[in-house]
Amino acid sequence: MIERGKVDREGEIPVRRMSDGVEAALHCTLVLAGLPDGRVLTGRSLAALHGVSESYLLKHLRALAAAGVVDAVPGPRGGYRLARAPALITLLDIVEAIDGPEPAFVCREIRRRGPGKGQDPCVYKTDCFIKTRMLAAEQVWRDALKAQTVQDLVADGARLIDPENKAAVARFLAAEQR
Predict the structure, then answer these.
(1) Domain-located, residue 66
(2) Domain span at residue 61?
(3) What is the pTM of this model?
């Protein structure tokens, strides 16, 4: 647990913890956005490109497919491709496909326990003000993810990925796409 206002090892102030699968899913959707129409990449190829195990990645690719983010094309020439245009897939779509739509904060109503609890049940007619603030903050976070798309990641990559890495990925995609 990191104290409020402290930074983590990477020098960043931590926010809601997402599963590691979200990172893998974001990278995979970015790569799939670069495929020509009608082409696919296998789960094995995506796993090799990102240096993760195939079984680990397939679990997340299945979740993306179930959420309608990617299409899983069956058969010996099958693989994965985006189900929609990159501009129509939000980062929230990806996060929710992997981690689910449930709120990060769950109020357990601990204010109703212990010696400090109110004896009059009427004091609990309104939602806990801590819950209200936490859910409001989470909504801002979700709105920010909903406002960003895979197309935004494509634009960032075009601008920020160095030419050597772009060339290496392009060679990999040319060799691996079906």
Answers:
(1) yes
(2) 20-100+149-176
(3) 0.83
